[in-house]
Amino acid sequence: MFSLRIVNHPILTFPQQEKVSFTLNGQDMEGVAGEPIAAALHAADVKVLSHSHSAHRPRGIFCAIGNCSSCLMTVDGIPNVRVCVEPLRAGMAVETQVGKGKIL
Ligand code: FES
């Protein structure tokens, strides 16, 4: 599986981390348990997380600290989840959100 994740670094070490599976729009994905959902998606080269309400422009990570609304996605049927600060858990169903999102 393609990944942008840093594996080897000249001065940092990364402890062994638990891999978990989740889905993005029904497609199987893999990430590290507890990392932000946005980090797992970024590692998989997924940059578009939602589309704006009026113009449907693509939105991705902007602040990465939960202060804007650029990364809103639908997670397990719940819209408007800020995935840059939402920890990844096994079995999550993550979906790209268009506009305000809908409660399923
Ligand atoms: S990128 Fe700003 S809240 Fe997630």
Please explain how this structure is put together.
This protein has 104 residues and is mainly β. It is 7% helix and 29% strand. The protein is built from one helix and eight strands, in the order ββαββββββ. The chain has one helix spanning 37-43; strands at residues 19-24, 27-32, 50-51, 58-59, 72-75, 78-82, 93-95, 97-98. A five-stranded mixed β-sheet has the order 2-1-7-5-6, covered by helices on one side. A hairpin with a 6-residue loop joins strand 3 and strand 4 (58-59). The longest helix has 7 residues, at 37-43. The mean pLDDT is 92. The chain binds FE2/S2 (inorganic) cluster (FES). FE2/S2 (inorganic) cluster binds at residues 61-64, 66-68, 70-71, 82, 84.
Separate helix tally: 1
Helix/sheet category:
mainly beta
Report the count of strand segments: 8
Strand order of the largest sheet: 2-1-7-5-6
* Helical content band: under 10%
What fraction strand? 25-35%
- What are the distinct ligands in this entry? FE2/S2 (inorganic) cluster
The separation of the N and C termini measures: 30 Å
Gyration radius, in Å: 14 Å
Q: SSE order in H/E notation? A: EEHEEEEEE
Main sheet attributes: strand count, strand direction, barrel closure: 5 strands, mixed
Low-confidence stretches: none
What is the average per-residue confidence, as pLDDT, rounded to a whole number?
Answer: 92
